[in-house]
Design brief:
Strand content: 25-35%
Number of helices: 6
Strand order of the largest sheet: 3-4-2-5
Largest sheet: 4 strands, antiparallel
Radius of gyration: 20 Å
Oligomer: single chain
Structural class: alpha+beta
Shape: elongated
Number of strands: 7
Order of helices and strands: EEHEEHHEEHEHH
Length: about 180
């Protein structure tokens, strides 16, 4: 039930670009459970649907809370194309849920009881790095797997310099090693 920590220092095994989607909801009126409850359940239903279909491109996710009112999910996707394809797929629950939201808005039935938001970032390789110490898989590591830190470099600059097309030690670490 509880994930065991991976001992020592590790880093994410991510390669290539990483697509990060932050998506969430804010409860504007606590008493309006009949408005925000279905939204929260729809979030869980979409995550369940994606977990059963890894070919859709969701690598991993973590649900977080920013306050008693605001809940969000950090999602890691294989590509923005797969994210767009899921969002627009007629057979996906997202398409149905978003259609219901749009019909409520057009019909004047949106009562501002729940807010929705998302932000999407395409992070090119070389523009992200990670470090974990005595942590169970979390965040990017849970989405892509973990590596011993030394495989990508002890310093953040080394991990930023890593390119998946090359093998072995990152260029910055190799240059530093030669200088010694």
């Amino acid at each position: 039930m509880f994930a065991k920590p991976t001992p020592g220092y590790t880093t994410a095994a991510a390669t290539g670009d990483t697509v990060v989607l932050l998506i969430g909801m804010r409860i504007n009126r606590f008493w309006a459970v009949h408005h925000w409850g279905p939204v929260m359940m729809a979030m869980f239903r979409m995550l369940s649907e994606l977990a059963k279909a890894p070919e859709r491109g969701l690598r991993g996710r973590v649900m977080l809370t920013a306050s008693p009112r605001t809940y969000y999910i950090v999602q890691y996707w294989e590509s923005k194309e797969k994210l767009y394809a899921y969002a627009a797929a007629p057979d996906a629950f997202h398409h149905k849920a978003w259609g219901m939201v749009n019909r409520k808005v057009r019909g004047g039935k949106a009562r501002q009881h729940v807010g929705l938001w998302h932000e999407t970032y395409v992070v090119p390789e070389g523009s992200y790095e990670s470090i974990y110490f005595d942590m169970p898989p979390f965040g990017l590591v849970a989405a892509t797997g973990s590596l011993p830190l030394d495989r990508r470099g002890r310093r953040a600059a080394d991990r930023f310099a890593f390119r998946s097309k090359g093998e072995g030690v990152p260029e910055a670490a190799a240059a530093e090693e030669k200088a010694r």
